[in-house]
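#help-structures

NK: newbie question. if I give both the sequence and a SMILES, will the prediction place the ligand too? trying with S-adenosylmethionine
OV: yes, paste both and it writes out the complex. here, I ran yours:
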Amino acid sequence: MEEIKIGMKYPNINTVTQNEMKGTRKRKTIKERLNFGIMYQHPRIYDFAIWLNDPKQLIVKTLAKNIEGNSVLDLGCGTGTLYTHLPDTVEYTGLDLNEDFIAFVNKKNRGTAHVRDILKDLSDFQADTVVLSDVLHHVTPQHQQLIDNALLCARKKVIISACYEKEEGPFKRISEFIGRQIIDNDGLNDQRAGAGWLKLDELLSFLKDNNGENFQKVLSHIHCEIKV
Ligand SMILES: C[S@@+](CC[C@H](N)C(=O)[O-])C[C@H]1O[C@@H](n2cnc3c(N)ncnc32)[C@H](O)[C@@H]1O
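OV: that's the protein plus ligand as structure tokens.
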């Protein structure tokens, strides 16, 4: 198996690797760890940070409520939290480039997960509902590519939960640096270092241009769906 090096180009792995199945992988060196923000140091830290931000888990519960059909494909699945809110009858597949997260999802039996770049060809995956939860801003400026990929995988609909850039303020630069570099740096996307994300009006028009409907505000996130 080709080794995945974070912060470099990623191979598109098409099968469940031995590491994904066993939940084992090479321990990261300190230098490699420095590529990641605090949230991405360990799956448990990620889950804790999400809980701190949304203790009642309103975002993930809203997504789960809007699932249609019997299968879900979660692109940029993180630790697979969504799985824990789905009925047993729904088949869950998560894709993410973070090897530690994928191993965690499989070890905790949160459905099935694979190490995959969600910006590349995903034609071997199909599901009734495809989920994009808190991931569009991570892949900017390729967020349109991610929507296109999601639509190609979806049989019924794509559901989206997306944050937006807060308005200007005196501490914007410092809070962006802390947010993007120190806390929410996924270690994958160089653009997290500086590129801004869409403001609320820009996000809404981007989603509407993609035929988004049923808009809802859930905490700091905009939810919508795109029917196929
Ligand atoms: C903020 S987390 C969201 C995780 C999960 N969807 C949630 O709502 O908790 C963003 C995730 O996108 C993943 N990611 C970013 N770029 C990716 C890419 N090109 N391919 C696969 N996963 C990617 C990161 O590894 C990270 O787990």
